[in-house]
Write a structure and sequence with these properties.
The chain is of the alpha/beta class. It is 40% helix and 16% strand. It binds adenosine monophosphate (AMP). The site of adenosine monophosphate has 11 residues, from helix 10 and helix 12. This is Acetate kinase. Its EC number is 2.7.2.1. Pathway: Metabolic intermediate biosynthesis; acetyl-CoA biosynthesis; acetyl-CoA from acetate: step 1/2.
């Protein structure tokens, strides 16, 4: 890979440095495949050169029968803009991979062995890891010359200590089957916690990140290391989400099976796809929920209050885990845009030094706590693709130096 033996300027928005003569600005194709979608971006640092999504993969009437066909559409869209897979200016391809288990705790250059490792983790992420692998297989075939890097959604949480990552079940069974807390949304928690820490007066900073999108998770980060997170072995645990229940008494599952005769797969679908805000009030889009609350709809009001109560509970829990908190950061579609959720979640916490300035919050300013507050409350838009591109370039640079 001689053509990559160059100094790559990582055009990050925090480095402050400008590219020098002879440096090239690393250009990364970031692929983020879900079970039925592929999102792509071409990033050059903070600059987004192209982006798009292919959705409804495999559904009737969709132009993409599978992930390979979806990547064909991506390739076509990119080629129209002279940014195709064959572009000589591409430095690397970064793949978001959902589950790295305990094996992959860092961004990893993709080799045959790494592909086998990701395959071995399919039982822990049966919908996502196969989609990620399908994309990896195609892009390795199309560009065997190009460095390809797997950036794992679980990796940022690998520092969580055993006291927080261990479930209190039979030890031998848990170890044998890999049953433990892994956590997800890792690239978002890494990116947002790093930005949030810059707002703290002193270092090392203690930060609580609330990533509230369609999926939602909280994390507690101390001096750049994640010490706890709300998602668990799978992304079902923790906060109330668009269609997922979050925390639940496990006995509810046995009750549904015994009393309703539901199969395990039916209960899986119920808790992952028909619960959360959707299950509570019939709408999983927070904008619709908020409009209904404003109109006095009791089901929407209950749903929003359950959502915000759970959030407040996790903030209190992570305050206790961290001992002290410098910054609480809201991110994701709900966290970045919903002033009512931010306000409700933080109401009644003034004894902990946590408060929200209603005017700043209403305007969606980046700092929404009052001046002089003990805990800064921030709205920080996440940028997972930037983080994946940066981590990908970091691996390419390290590999070049070895
Ligand atoms: P994400 O998964 O991060 O893209 O977040 C998507 C979710 O953000 C949507 O389903 C909405 O519930 C929520 N959202 C987006 N815009 C707004 C908004 N202006 N106000 C409240 N919620 C929003």
């Amino acid at each position: 890979m001689d053509q990559h033996q160059v100094l790559i300027f990582r055009g990050g928005d925090e480095s402050g440095a400008a590219p020098g003569k002879g440096d090239i600005v690393g250009r990364v194709l970031v692929l983020n495949a879900g079970s039925s979608s592929v999102k792509y971006q071409i990033r050059s640092g903070a600059e987004r050169l192209a982006s798009g999504t292919v959705e409804r993969i495999g559904e009737p009437g969709s132009p993409a029968a599978d992930h390979e066909a979806a990547l064909g559409i991506v390739a076509g869209e990119l080629a129209e803009r002279d940014l195709g897979f064959d572009s000589p200016e591409l430095t690397a391809i970064g793949h978001r991979v959902v589950h790295g288990g305990t094996v992959f705790t860092e961004p990893t250059p993709i080799t045959d062995e790494v592909v086998r490792g990701i395959e071995a983790l399919i039982p822990l992420a049966p919908l996502h890891n196969p989609a990620n692998l399908a994309c990896i297989e195609v892009t390795r075939r199309l560009r065997p010359d190009l460095p390809q890097v797997a950036v794992f959604d679980t990796a940022f949480h690998a520092t969580i200590p055993p006291a927080a990552s261990t479930y209190a079940i039979d030890r031998e069974t848990a170890v044998r089957l890999g049953i433990r807390r892994y956590g997800f949304h890792g690239t978002s928690h890494a990116y947002v916690s790093r930005k949030a820490a810059l707002l703290a007066a002193g270092s090392p900073a203690n930060v609580i990140v609330l990533h509230l999108g369609n999926g939602a998770s909280a994390s507690a980060v101390s001096a750049g290391r994640c010490v706890d997170t709300s998602m668990g072995m799978t992304p079902l645990e923790g906060l109330v989400m668009g269609t997922r229940s979050g925390d639940l008494d496990p006995e509810v599952i046995f009750h549904l099976s015994r009393r309703e005769g539901l199969s395990i797969d039916e209960i899986d679908r119920l808790l992952n796809r028909r619960s959360g805000m959707l299950g509570l009030c019939g709408d999983n889009d927070m904008r619709a929920v908020q409009e209904r609350v404003a109109d006095g709809d009791p089901d929407a009001e209950l749903a929003l209050s359950v959502y915000c109560h759970r959030l407040r509970k996790y903030i209190g829990a992570y305050y206790a885990v961290l001992g002290a908190v410098d910054v609480i950061a809201f991110t994701g579609g709900v966290g970045e845009n919903s002033a009512p959720v931010r306000e409700r979640a933080l109401t009644g916490l003034s004894a902990l030094g946590i408060a929200v300035d209603p005017v700043r919050n209403g305007r969606g300013e980046s700092l929404i706590s009052p001046d002089g507050a003990l805990v800064k409350v921030a709205v920080i838009p996440t940028d997972e693709e930037f983080e994946i591109a940066e981590q990908t370039l970091g691996v390419v640079e390290r590999t070049n130096l070895e």
